[in-house]
Design brief:
Blueprint: H1 2-12, H2 16-23, H3 27-31, H4 40-52, H5 58-67, H6 74-83, E1 114-123, E2 129-137, E3 143-149, H7 154-168, E4 173-176, H8 180-183, H9 185-194, E5 197-200, H10 210-222, H11 232-248, H12 260-281
Parallel strand pairs: 1-4, 4-5
Antiparallel strand pairs: 1-2, 2-3
Length: 283
Amino acid sequence: MKEVVAYICSHHGLSERRACRITQQHRSTQRKPLTSDPLTELRQKMHEIVATRVRYGYRRVHIMLRREGFDVGRNRVYRVYREEGLVLKTKRPRRRKMATHREARCQPTAPNEAWSLDFVHDQLASGPKIRLLTVIDIFTRECLAIEVGHRLRGENVAEVLNRLVRFRGAPKALFADNGAEFTGQIVDLWAYHHKVRMDFSRPATPTDNAHIESFNGSLRDECLNVHWFETLSEAKRTIEAWRTDYNESRPHMALNGLPPAEYALCARTSCGKEEQSAVGNSP
């Protein structure tokens, strides 16, 4: 309305008093200086981030804002996050954590020491079901591969593992559940050939393989539930793009907000320096 009064005064030669009378605006309102919200740009950027990353809470939003150059604290991000109604609502029930005893497992202390793998199920828009074989590095949380197909069996698991070994080398341990694809002869021979220890979860105990279960939940929430795949090739392209974004961009709270690929690079660099130091100190 202030712009309308200014237009009437400048184009029709009327006084401000008469222009306010015509537009029925009080003169004190016309003379009151405009006060803009200093957080407008921040609010807009937060909406953009949440619109494309639907499962991001305020902590990850804060990390993304810092990457974009916003010098803002986490408490302010939290306040604006709630003011804008961006609060993430989770549908997962909270389960009571039970302390259970099991034999010692392989605890990775460097990249590529232990991998975890599992299957995820989904379906295309036309009805056919698809399966996804997910493989992650437990230490760096990198997603090493997501194999998509209508039917994935033990031979497909071995094929994916062989492809990863060619580029990364074999791990020391492989975590999996008791599915027939993992306990079958083909994967067992693969593990024997590469001297890899197979560590199977206890029946009805998904927490034994918690890292891959957490990853699969993120995959479903951030990719499978927000896309409607028409064809298998479309599903492969979309899921691979999400895997790349997960590794290279998505902040991981267990890695101090770093994406897995950056954390893996830092870990490999530190391991290399330690090896050089050990060689230099050897007699």
